[in-house]
Amino acid sequence: MLRRVVTSLKEKKNRHLAYTVAGMGALMAGGKVSGLTLFGLGLAGLEQDWREHRGFTGTWAERLEKSAAFYDGTHQDPTNRKLHRVGIPLIVGGAAGLILFPRYRPMWAASWGMFTGGWVLNFIGHGIYEKNAPAFADDPLSFMMGPLWDLKQLRGQPTGPAPAPAQAPAPEPVAVGA
Prior knowledge:
Layout: H1 2-8, H2 12-28, H3 32-54, H4 60-73, H5 78-100, H6 106-130, H7 142-154
């Protein structure tokens, strides 16, 4: 088992994903600076790897548009969407609390529970209902896109690619000599 893990970490993407997960783990263990540093390093590496493998050289606006379309495409099941509408705010609020509150105190512990509970809901949504991996496994900007997607959902705005504009009706023929 250990050999498989070591072999897997030779791939840059897996190593960066491990940094990201280790950062979340460190944050949950009370390490604010180490957690944020590992998470940031992992996320930056995943984004660089994403761009290299796709030959992407566009702007940030174009990158966010691609990420939004991908995120929306990987969140089609209605139950998964509902679980995410609850889970993602728990994750964001829990992460903020883990960073802001003194570690191992009641508010920090409540934040730990929110953070963990939010991830559990998201993994249930993907594993049982959506039957796919969480979007961050293939697109690192999904860590940011999830909360933005949720806000759009709550505001009743459509997500994903914009629908094609409607065609204007053809003009009525004009009768000649009438």
